[in-house]
Design brief:
Layout lengths: L1 E4 L12 E3 L2 H8 L5 E3 L2 H32 L3 E6 L6 E6 L1 H11 L8 E3 L3 E3 L1 E10 L2 E11 L1
Parallel strand pairs: 4-9
Antiparallel strand pairs: 1-2, 1-3, 5-7, 6-8, 8-9
Length: 147
């Protein structure tokens, strides 16, 4: 099933993208939740017109994402976690804790744009990827320390 996304959907696409999804996912979730519409010919023409009108605004949003990426690419965050005597973390460090560390550093980053390659369950240095825009992503180093 081909659909046009009306908003960003994690792991599927961004607003305005024409994507193929399984029929049940589109019919039972995306379309009823108003996150997508069917990609008919008339809907594609409307999308093209909207994209022409929105080009300036999208360029500004992309520039803001690039600006934030330049600011955060060289910083190293410190995330505190409760640990055992052997250095293992009780639970795991996830995007929420990293977003909190960004807040403490003075940056406003949504937790949903933070991606980790593997679960963080020990003290050490790691990297997280920030997907700030569909064309802008940056890797940020963070260190997990025991509290």
């Amino acid at each position: 099933m081909e659909i046009i996304l009306k908003e960003d959907v994690i792991n599927i696409g961004y607003k305005g993208d024409i994507v193929k999804v399984k029929d049940g996912y589109g019919r039972n979730y995306l379309i009823p939740q108003k996150k997508a519409v069917l990609a008919t010919e008339s809907a594609k023409k409307m999308l093209a017109e909207d994209n022409r009108q929105r080009a300036h605004k999208l360029e500004r949003i992309k520039n803001e994402a690039i600006e934030l990426a330049e600011k955060v690419k060289d910083i190293t965050l410190t995330v505190g976690a409760k640990t055992s005597t052997t250095g293992k973390i009780f639970g795991a460090v996830g995007p929420i804790q990293i977003a909190d560390a960004f807040e403490k550093a003075g940056f406003s980053v949504d937790r949903r744009v933070i991606a980790l390659k593997e679960p963080v369950k020990e003290i050490g240095s790691y990297k997280a990827t920030l997907k700030l825009h569909k064309e802008v992503s940056v890797e940020v180093a963070f260190e997990v320390v025991g509290e």
